[in-house]
Amino acid sequence: MMQFPQLFHKILGVAFFLLPLCAQGKPAGFLSYIFKHLTEDGRDEGFIPAYIPVADDEMGDINRQLEHRVSRLEGVLRLEKTITESGGKIFATNGKKADFNTTLQKCKEAGGSIAAPRNPGENDAIQYFVKTFNTYAYLGVKESLIPGKFQFLDGTELSYTNWHSNEPSGKGEEGCVEMYTDGTWNDKRCNQNRLIVCQF
User: Fold this and answer.
1) How far apart (Å, rounded) are the C-alpha atoms in residues 101 and 58?
2) What backbone phi and psi angles, to 5 degrees, belong to 6?
3) What digits encode the pLDDT tens for the residues 23-74?
4) Rama region for 77: left / alpha / beta (φ>0; ψ in -120 to 50; rest)
5) Cα(148)–Cα(163) distance, integer angstroms
6) In terms of DSSP bridges, do strands 194-199 and 89-98 run parallel, antiparallel, or are they unpaired?
7) So what's the pLDDT on residue 31?
8) How far apart are CA 36 and CA 38, in angstroms?
């Protein structure tokens, strides 16, 4: 089971990433729901649940309550097609498009990173957004110093790939990777606007 502070911070990251959707009225009021229920016990508005001293059984109760609320929140977000999950990772989009560097920055600001599938299940979770929004998305994969050889952003070797036939084909000219609506990958220049998809 994920520890309470980690879960709390993960959910807040997703919530703040999706904040622009709230400003547009979708999904309606879910952030206010989070904050209302986190402070409804009468504690000060600045209350941070991870920092209150509680007994083990009280911590268990708090964990169960938070897990229930998070589960309800996830249900709302799934209905709005803004989150998916796979293997303990949460994938989210705000429905906006940006170039690779802006996507990287937006995901980092939200406490996550650009979506980087490491197995077929994670690839499918990201593809859900690409199909839903009928547009391509950048992945957290870039070309290494060796033209035509790609790696994860942290420099580790790709343990999973789903290249479209005859890809990668940029030969040093296309340093980023996008996902097509069929879930396959293509190397692409980094200055195109693609759907922002982050992982948490």
Assistant:
1) 43
2) -65, -45
3) 555 444 444 444 444 444 444 444 444 445 556 677 778 878 888 777 776 6
4) alpha
5) 12
6) antiparallel
7) 45
8) 6
Check residue 180 and give left, alpha or beta (phi > 0: left; psi -120 to 50: alpha): beta
Which two tokens mark 47? 């209350």
CA distances from 163 to 40, 147, 167, 177 (A): 49, 16, 6, 10
The residue with greater pLDDT, 149 or 51, is 149
CB atoms within 10 A of CB 178: 24
Tokens 């989150």 sit on residue? 83
CA atoms within 13 A of residue 154's CA, in its CB half-sphere: 8
pTM: 0.69
Collect all residues with Cβ–Cβ distance below 8 Å to 186 and sequence separation of at least 6.
Answer: 136, 163, 164, 167, 168, 177, 178, 179, 180
Task: Look up tokens 């033209």; give the residue.
Answer: 147
In this structure, are residues 198 and 84 in contact, taking their beta carbons and an 8 Å threshold?
A: no
Angle, CA 139 vertex, CA 200 and CA 82 arms, to 5°: 50
Burial of 73 (0-12, 13-18, 19+ CB in 10 A): buried
What's the 3-state SS for 65-102? HHHHHHHHHHHHHHHCCCEEEECCEEEEEEEEEECHHH
